[in-house]
Amino acid sequence: MDNTITVRPGVGNTGRIVQRQALRVAQCFIEQPTLVVIQNGSKHLAWAGGECLLNAGQAFVIAGGQRCDVTNRPGRNGQYEAFWLGWDASLFDGLPTAQAGCAPISDLLVIRPPDPAFVSACQQACAAVRESDAVPVAVAQHRMRELLAWIEHFGGYFVTATSPSLMRRVWGLLGSDPGRDWNTDAVAQAMAMSEATLRRRLATEGSKLSELLVDVRMTRALQLLQSTGLPINQIALEVGYASASRFAIRFRQRFGFAPTAIRGDRAVLRIPDKQGANR
Asked: What is the pLDDT along the chain (279 residues), one digit of tens a residue?
C-alpha cells in the first residue's frame, strides 16, 4: 500500500501509517468512526473509559468524537505500520437495525485476533477507496458497508449523532480547509450564529476556537507526517504555516516532540500540559 492518504467522496478514506520511533500522542481527537489494522509493532490506547494494548495482526474500531492517548511502538523491523479506513457519513444512512446481541460502540471495540476473511475484506475496501477508476462507486460502497456487517459480527455497531456538538461541527469546518486563515467571524457565519454566541457555546463545551484551530491543524499535520511522504515545509503550508520553523515550534508545543521524530529523527518524549495557542 502506498504512503498516501486517499479520500473517495461517498465512499470513505484510507491511509497507511508508518512511524519509526516510539511516540505518545496525548489527547488525539478521532473525528469519524475509524477502523485500524496493525501490521507491525504495537499500539497502546488510553481513554476515559479504559485502555488496551494491541499488537501486529490485531485490529480495532473507534467511534467518532473520541479523544484518547495513543502510543505507537515500532516492531522488529524498526517501524510501526498500520492501515486505517474511515467511512463516508452517507454510508450510515438507511442501515438496517443492528442484529440482536450487538452493543453500540461508545468508545472502542477491539477485534483480536481478527478473522482472516475480515482482514481480506478490509484490504478489499482499501482497494475500493483507492482504485476509483477500477472499482465502481456502488461496489466500493458495498465493500465499506460489508465492513460494518463484520463489525456487527464481532459484537458492535456505530451510532451516528443526529445532533453533533458545536465543537464537532466547528472541527469539521476547520478540518475541511486547515490552511485557511480562519477567524471568528468566518466560523460564526458558517455556523449561522453571532461571534458572541459561538464563543459562549464553545465555552460551555470546554473549548475555544483558537485552541480548536491549533488542534485541527496539528492533528492534520500528524496524519500527513505518518501517512504521506510530503516534505515538512509542504506540510506546514498545508496546515496554514508559511514558516516551517514556526510550524515545528507549534507542533512540538502540541505533541511534545518534533515533526521529524515521526520519520525517525531523535526526539525528547514528553507530554505537553496544554495545547499552544493559534499562530
From this structure: 567 899 999 999 999 999 999 999 999 999 999 999 999 999 999 998 899 999 999 999 999 988 999 999 999 999 999 999 999 989 988 777 777 788 999 899 999 777 889 999 999 999 999 999 999 999 999 999 999 999 999 999 998 766 789 999 999 999 999 999 999 999 999 999 999 999 999 999 999 999 999 999 999 999 999 999 999 999 999 999 999 999 999 999 999 999 999 988 543 333 333 333 333
Q: Is residue 269 part of a domain?
A: no
Strands annotated E in the chain? 5-8, 12-19, 23-30, 34-40, 42-47, 50-55, 59-62, 66-73, 80-87, 103-104, 108-111, 156-157
User: In which element (H, E) is residue 86 found?
Assistant: strand 80-87
What's the one-letter identity of residue 221?
A
Count CB neighbours of 198 within 10 A: 21
CATH number, position 241: 1.10.10.60
Cell triple for 68: 484518547
Question: Taking the complete model, does pTM exceed 0.90, yes or no?
Answer: no
Cβ burial of 25 (10 Å; 0-12, 13-18, 19+) is buried
146 and 84 in one domain? yes
Do 108 and 219 belong to one domain? no
Exposure of 259 in the CB half-sphere (CA atoms within 13 A): 27
d(CA 95, CA 152): 12
Task: Tell me if 53 sits within 8 A of 43, measured CB to CB.
Answer: yes
Residue 39, CA distances (Å) to 13, 126, 127, 161, 186 in order:
18, 14, 17, 31, 42
Q: What pLDDT does residue 1 have?
A: 54
Specify the 3-state DSSP secondary structure of 271.
coil
